[in-house]
Request: fold
Amino acid sequence: MSAHPPTRGAVPPTSVRGAAMRGVVARPGAEAIEAKGWWIAHKWLLLRRVSQLGILALFMVGPWFGWWVVKGNLASSLTLGVLPLTDPFLIAQQAAAGHWPYREALVGGGIVLAFYLLLGGRMFCAWVCPVNLVTDAAAWLRRRLGLKGGKVPSANTRYWLLGFVLVLAAMTGSLAWEWVNPVSMFHRGLIFGFGLSWGIVGGIFFYDLLIAPRGWCGHLCPQGAFYGLIGKSAMLRVSANRRSTCNDCMDCFAVCPEPQVIRPALKGVGQDHPLILDGDCTTCGRCIDVCGKDVFRISTRFDRSES
Amino acid sequence: MSKTQNTSASAPAGTGPAKSRRRFLKDAAGVAGGAGLLALGTGLYSRQASALPATAIRPPGALAEADFLAACVRCGLCVRDCPYDTLKLAVLGDSVATGTPYFEARRIPCEMCEDIPCVAACPTGALDRGLSEIGEARMGLAVLIDQENCLNFLGLRCDVCYRVCPVIDKAITLELVHNPRSDRHAMLLPTVHSDACTGCGKCERSCVLPGESAIKVLPLRLAQGSKAEHYRRGWEEKAEAGGSLIGDQLEMPVRGLEGKAYGDTRVGPGEAPAAAGKPGIDSGWKP
Ligand code: SF4
Ligand code: SF4
Ligand code: SF4
Ligand code: SF4
Ligand code: SF4
Reply:
């Protein structure tokens, strides 16, 4: 157990733990900004926003300017007239509803499936899904306002809901979930027009802000659950490989959308290596950004080294 | 999941694992209940709204509505490849299944492209590629629904719906009917034939009446009644059998009308049946 000798350094005053001791609103990541500079302390966040907005832009330049790079939406799309991509979550629903799609959709689904199997299922959540912008905004505002507590449903609810989505498709013989699915609805809305769907997106924002911290993505979204299951064996993983230098400031826990995944790696609870192997980790890299002690880095699931 | 918390050894209610198992079951029941309710709500909502409203017409080649709702992933590729911006995706609040493609004939009808790009674009088969001839499409059926305001029914000559129809003289014809109002004119009634009408909606679009159209494309479910399968249609049976099944009608002589055509029972003034012999009950008939 040489993994984490007690290095109780001075905890920075604005960190989660420091602020708690002083009874003020925490500003997680301030130490990291001081230690590494603003840009490095936001590197993964910025990359992620570039990815999310860039993908969105690829879909939007068609309807806006007539440059048809990508047609369709995240449900199914055609890039440059040759590359089909389809959301395997939808194919799963179709199969449950009793429809076997054409080859394009299957090939497209296969490509997407392979990508996330390899890289990490919930990378979809952190790097592609537009709802992430909404829930991140709610989480940020929640931290800023110092809102505490809330009533979150069990994190397993999403798996139950995923099961129900498929059962429902089988029972109704239709993609019933897609009538209300906020994820596809939001993306489609941005590209094809919203109608009343703004209400659902706003609902998620206020639900996450006022009722349940990280309540949608971390507890309810069946699509996130689906990708989480896919990504169980993914290659790309976050490693707390310098965990011995951790000063327990708790900032990473505050910014992580799935904070329960950090403890086993960082604190060695139930595992002896520093890899975050939990399928719920969205590989967003925000923990890497905010850690003033540079504990985390992106690595592969084969790299169990520690320094 | 902090398993460490509820393993407090001194718990009187039972041993640690049993207690946490109980708690898990309780959690699961709560979760299942909540998720079940949500799912049920979604299901009911989709059930309730899954009957397509009369003004919403599916693109050509669309599977039957129930199958379509299992197949369409709501990607909008069909919408993008329609050169006439006919199709659009339903948004929340339209009474069409959220995200599925449809069009409203009175706004923009289907132009019946020969290469059917919308069908070619659909990756899932919700629009069936078995449809290769656009003339075979059955998006809906036009119905001349308002016979009080249709100009042709008023005895005027409008004919616009007839003339714009891409399947003119097959899908829609003008039927000549005597005009009883003027007694000296004809009415040319636009008449739709279901065996040729594609439901493209061009007639509805071009109807000259301001506001609502007198001819409307309706989903087949609304436009057509169900067949009375338990009735035999004599003319069809006859055609199939190559002749009447009951043979020609028997002709029996009618007494006293022997000189007349069969069935003609009219009797002229001076033409009373010749009463042979004395008047009275006895007609004088002998075998
Ligand atoms: S959990 Fe769902 S809503 Fe959230 S980012 Fe993932 S897919 Fe999108
Ligand atoms: S562990 Fe890090 S990378 Fe994974 S979800 Fe949390 S913050 Fe993001
Ligand atoms: S890993 Fe970094 S951010 Fe997390 S508690 Fe330790 S020092 Fe703080
Ligand atoms: S046939 Fe042509 S006009 Fe009609 S819906 Fe398809 S693409 Fe649009
Ligand atoms: S292309 Fe097919 S799957 Fe996509 S919206 Fe149109 S009908 Fe639905």
Observations:
- Chain B touches chain A through 48 residues (CB under 8 Å).
- DSSP finds eight helices and six strands in chain B.
- The helical segments of chain B are 16-49, 65-71, 77-81, 117-121, 160-164, 202-206, 220-223, 234-241.
- The two ends of chain B are 112 Å apart (CA to CA).
